[in-house]
Amino acid sequence: MSTTAQRLSRRVRELAPSMTFALADKAKALKAAGRPVISFSVGEPDFASPEVVAAAAKEAIDRGETHYTPVRGTPRLIEAIVERTAQDTGYRADPEQVLVSNGGKQSLFNLFLAFLDPGDEVVLASPYWVSYPAMIQLAGGRAVPVAADPARGFRLDPDEVAAAMGPRCKALLLNTPSNPTGAVLDPGDVEALVRLALDRGVLVVSDEIYAGLLYDGAEHRSALSVAHPGVREGVVLCSGVSKRYAMTGWRIGYVVGPTDLVAAAAKLQSQSTSGACSIAQAAAAAALREGEEAAAAMRDVFARRRRVAVDALQAIPGVRVPEAKGAFYLFPDVSSYYGRTVAGRRIGGSLDLSEVLLEEANVAAVPGAAFGADGHLRFSYALDEEQIVEGLSRVRELLARAEPAAAAKPAAGSGR
Question: Which residue in 102, 126, 247, 284 is deepest, having the highest Cβ count within 10 Å?
Fold first, then answer.
């Protein structure tokens, strides 16, 4: 009988498991066992999908739209994507520039497989969404992180990005608003970064799935809206309906980009999943055309929750909360507790702290190590205000009992 090493492919053996899913699974298990777990780990809105979405899905079923769909997407949804993109960014795409996939994650995975060869590099900001490096690795490429400065709202410095673009750099990956930080890139920085990449012949992959979730007057600048002659051939936007319209379970993502790259991604999709669900596509088209009122109402609720969560985290001594004006995440710096002992356990990093919070306070938060930033924890505020207040009160109470780090002992013979 073959061993596991012989049975499994090298690409799977070398792939790191997802910390976010591991933590979420543990939190669910504890909750199922009767523990009063409050989870800040979920990366999805807690609202039901808008009524207009559900109505469109029911109508599609009644019309008998229960068959295979075109690989690229239904004409109705593609038209809605073209219109929504034009309204949001000012960029009018041709239908041939659109590909609908089974969620935003597949959209990105299709792209990386379509343009990366072994050894090619993708420059991206750190902290990063946990799946970016894994997808790039599975496609044969190499992720090249550039540290974003938390003291400046996780700003991505164009000069540092330029320095990271080596001869094998194939793409610059942008994500604004950001998961995990909630940061919104300054419009001027987006302009500079897109121009930098296009001037060097580097593809820009812009993940804008959270673009509809902005607060405190933040301005989102789409990579597609940058005035540069290379945008049509050198920028690909990745988005979907999951976050803005509370449709995570419908599994509809899409890309808008260069026709050759979109065609290549569609060819890959034709040999894997084929077209996305017919009913979900009808629902997504309705969301993009008629869902803005519901989306705005959800955004207002998120804005209130964000204020509550920021205030609660800032009330915890030693916790620093960087500016976050988008998405529904906060990414506080909790490193002042590292080296200290909490509930009898020495805290060496974000994974230790997240485990102690779950086990001792019944609070689930995602370790920053999963996102390349071990000094932080990610808290989603996609839960009701009562739970936010209670959960973060538990965090404050537990950390108030943290014991100071042990003082280093003098070296032998030091005379002290």
Answer: 284
- What one-letter code names the amino acid at 182? G
Burial class of residue 342 in the structure, from the number of CB atoms within 10 Å of its CB (0-12 exposed, 13-18 middle, 19+ buried): buried
Where does residue 246 fall: left (phi above 0), alpha (psi -120 to 50 degrees), or beta otherwise? left
- The answer to whether 4-47+294-399 and 66-290 have equal CATH topology is no
The encoded tokens of residue 389 equal 């207040």
Total-model pTM: 0.94
Residue 213 near residue 180, CB atoms below 8 Å: no
Which CATH architecture describes the domain 66-290? 3-Layer(aba) Sandwich (3.40)
Per domain, the residue ranges of the chain are 4-47+294-399, 66-290
**Three state DSSP letters for 355-379:** HHHHHHHCEECEEHHHHCCCCEEEE
CATH topology of domain 4-47+294-399: Aspartate Aminotransferase, domain 1 (3.90.1150)
Q: What is the mean pLDDT of each run of 10 residues along the chain (416 residues)?
A: 77 84 85 95 94 98 98 98 98 98 98 98 97 97 97 93 98 98 97 98 98 97 98 98 98 98 98 98 98 98 98 98 96 98 96 96 96 97 97 98 69 40
